[in-house]
Structure formats: structure tokens, C-alpha cells
Amino acid sequence: MADVRDLRIVVIGAGMGGLGTALAFARKGFKDIRVFETASNLGFVGAGIQIPPNVVRVLSHLGCWESIAKEATIVRGTSIRGKPPAKNLV
Predict the structure, then answer these.
(1) Can you tell me the distance from the alpha carbon of 48 to that of 17, in angstroms, rounded to the nearest whole number?
(2) Rounded-to-integer distance, Cα 14 and Cα 45, Å
């Protein structure tokens, strides 16, 4: 019987979920993992990512959290700006 880790793994999307999935497969010993992304550029976009504690545990398990934590900042407060919600006229 062939080793299951010889299967070809295809991950669609190079976002946090897709890359995390590919990393998890690699850590389990899968050898042929391909990640596909339609975005033409994966550069810096100036957006922030909030990482809740359960995701920190997953990233720690995958061995990624220490390097992320070195670059992270702790947000002490937030503000949401925009149009106020529409009034209920009923």
C-alpha cells in the first residue's frame, strides 16, 4: 500500500487559512503540496490582522507564533468610523 503522504495536495488560496493548511500538511510529512492564488501580487497592503487566542495556539503548534509575536503590536483600543446606521422608520 502506498504512503498517504505521497498524495498530491492542492490548496486553493494563499490567505492565512490556505498557507496555514499547507504548512500543517508539510509538518505532517506530505511531500507534494501546491498552493494556488489568483492575486497577482501578495505584497504589503497596509492592513492589520487581529489574531485571537485560539489562532495563537494553532500558530504556536505550527511553530510560527514566536516570529510573528516579534513583529506584532498589542492594540489597546479601537474605533470604528463611518456612517451611522439607518433609522428604523417603521
Answers:
(1) 16
(2) 15
The radius of gyration computed from the CA coordinates of the chain, to the nearest angstrom, equals 19
Model confidence pLDDT, tens digit, residues 1-39: 589 999 999 999 988 889 889 999 999 999 999 999 998
How sure is the predictor about 42, in pLDDT bands with cuts at 50, 70 and 90? low
Any domain includes 65: yes
pTM of the predicted structure, to 2 decimals: 0.61
Quote the domain boundaries for residue 24: 4-39+49-71
How far is the CA of 75 from the CAs of 8, 32, 82, in angstroms? 40, 38, 20
Which of 43, 50, 44 minimizes the C-alpha distance to 80? 50
